[in-house]
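Data availability excerpt. The first of two example chains:
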Amino acid sequence: MKELRAFVEPIIMQAGDVLLSYFSRANQLDRRTKDGAGFVTEADLASEKFLIGELSKVLPQAGFWAEESGVSGNNRYCWVIDPLDGTTNFAHGLPHFCISVALTDNEKPILGAIYSPVLKELFWAQEGGGAWLNGKKIQTTSPVQFDQSLLVVGFPYKGIDGLYAKFMQQVAEIGPKAYTFRNLGAAALDLAYVAAGRFDGIFCSRMQWWDFSAGSLLVTESGGIITDFEGKGLEPDSKSFVAGGQTVHETLLRYLAK
């Protein structure tokens, strides 16, 4: 699987070019609302179509688990794709968005790539091979004191189950104990930033497999820890995640597991 990098990197970067071709008129694109999960644009669909078409040539036997088109194929290997993470940012002309691609083996990520087209930053991880940003090795940070930590959060979409209100209560409890928060609106890219040490930790709720499959591998390969809010390992049906260096992860988990 090590040789896949030479094929996957150009594909995800070309998909980034597909997104950029729409970005200058992003606020004019047609939008289709999705139940409880924002909206989708033609840019999302074009990126996903390109990725599926090209990745199917790289590993023809692999299946796909893509945000817009769902699950296809039945094989131990599966490409997990978010063709445009941060669609709301994208549609409002905000440059914080990315493409996220993971290859899983029996639902375990073994390859992860996250690409920020605007900054031309490609984050890459392969099982046992470390985590990299544009060819340079990256690692998570671990402040000595939690009150020195810069955290990023991903707010869940508002729903009728009370999850949004509970999450805001958790933010209110943790906030005064950390240094400060950021909310940037693209969970996959935020995970890549944690892996690169730009943030010390992250916690997000109401997530999907494509949001964190690639980013979870980046975090672990850069020396960090990632679990759900109960401290369990992540699986395709996990709906939350918390990540960071050991100190930050352990501290966040104490508050989130309540």
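And the second chain:
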Amino acid sequence: MLREGSRGTQRTMRPGGGKTRLRLTLVMAIAAACNLPGCGTPAKATIQPIVTTTETATRLPTLVVPTPRPTLTLPAITPTPEVPVAAPTEQPVNCRRGPDVGWEAVSGLQVGSAAEIVGKNAQNTWWYVRDPLEVGEFCWVAMSVTAAFGNLSQVPVVLPLTASVGEVTVATDVAYTACGEPNTVMFRGTITTNGPTEVQYQWEVRGDKENTTSPQTLVFLSFGTQDVPDPGAYTADCGEYSIRLHVLKPNDTSAVDLIVIGPP
């Protein structure tokens, strides 16, 4: 242990006392140094954000397809014909000889076809048209089953034709007995008309013996064929004869059968 003498005073240096003073000196030096500019609270470090680049696929623009608009279908415009015509409405129709279903059908109209109107009946229920199947001919179609187009104001009233007899048939049966004796002859026949009418007819026998019956009448309510009533048994001797079924009205027409009465 060292001893300093000063003014007769001795100081005793304790072990480790020099190190203490050295440490104090360093602390003061550091403190003095911190009084310099820039010394103080340490500057905070600036943390730069890390930008992460992520590759993304380039998105193409969405293609917008416009929704098609519904097509507007306009009804077909059919010009009104100047010439009046009649056409079936739902199904084919008959074209008849006269303005009634009692008349014979001579032609017809198919759906989609039309016939020129040239007249009508007085009751305004039937059209008189040009026959669509026969050039130069005419027939009647019912208004109830047809549609008419065109100028109908000038369509005239047409009087229908009178029904007529179109066909006559005749046949005979002979029951031979002997010449010089009465031999029985039976007549039969048919008459056909094209419409409703009254038919007047008679039987006429010509030959070695002649005879004519009185006129008879057949009523036809519609077109068709009727059997002519048997006039009864007729007797004649051997010889040649003609048997005629003669229609007098509504038109004059007839049919004839030639017979020979004799031994077979």
